[in-house]
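I'm stuck. Protein, please.
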Amino acid sequence: MSNVLSKFYQWETQTPNHLLFQQPLAGRTRIWTYAQAGQEIRKIATALQLQNLPRRSRVAILSKNCAHWMMADLAILMAGHISVPLYPTLSAHSIDQILKHSDPKVIFIGKPDDYKSQKDGIPASIQKISFDENEVATIKYTAAGKAKSKEEVSKSLEETLTSVNKEIENYERLQAIVVMKSDWTIENGLLTPSLKVKRNEVEKIYLLTYPSWYSLNTKVVFA
C-alpha cells in the first residue's frame, strides 16, 4: 500500500472530524473533514473501479490545485492505479504528447483556465471524469457509464463469469453472480476502509439466503 494512502487511513481513523481540506467555492468556503473527504474519495475510487481497468493502470489529472485534485489523486491510489498529473497551463500539444507517452485510460478534468484550447490534446479514446465545482460542490462521475437494461447487465455479467471461470481451477469456479439491491459500504459495516469485503459480516446477513440463490440455477441472480 502507498505510504501516502496508509497515512490517510491512519488519520481518517484517528481524527475523522479534523479538518483536511478548505477551499473557496462560489463565494463561500467549503471544508472537508477526514471522514467527509474519505467518503468522496471512495466514490471516485468506485467510479474508477467501474471501468474494469487492469491493476496499476495510469490515470491522468488535468486541473488547477484544488481539494478534488487531491481527492482524485488519493482515489487513484485507492483503486490500485498510478496517477499522471498534468499542469493546468499545458498546451494541447504538450498534453497530447504526455498522454500518448503515459497511455492513461481515464482522465480527471477540473476547471483549467483555458480548457477549450486544451481539450483537443486529449484523445477521444480516453474516458473523462469531470469535477463539477459548483455551489453544491458535487462531483460528476461521467465515466460510470449510461444506464443499462437488466438484460444487458445480465448478459455482461454472464460473460464476465464465464471468462473468470476459464482462468481458475474447477474447485474454485463460481456458480453465479448475485446483484444486490442495497449497497455494501463502510458505513453499514460490510466494507473495510480500503473497500475490501468483510466476509464474516456478509455471511451473517446472507447465509440463510444462499440456498434460495443456488436453487434458481441461473448464472446471474438479482436479489
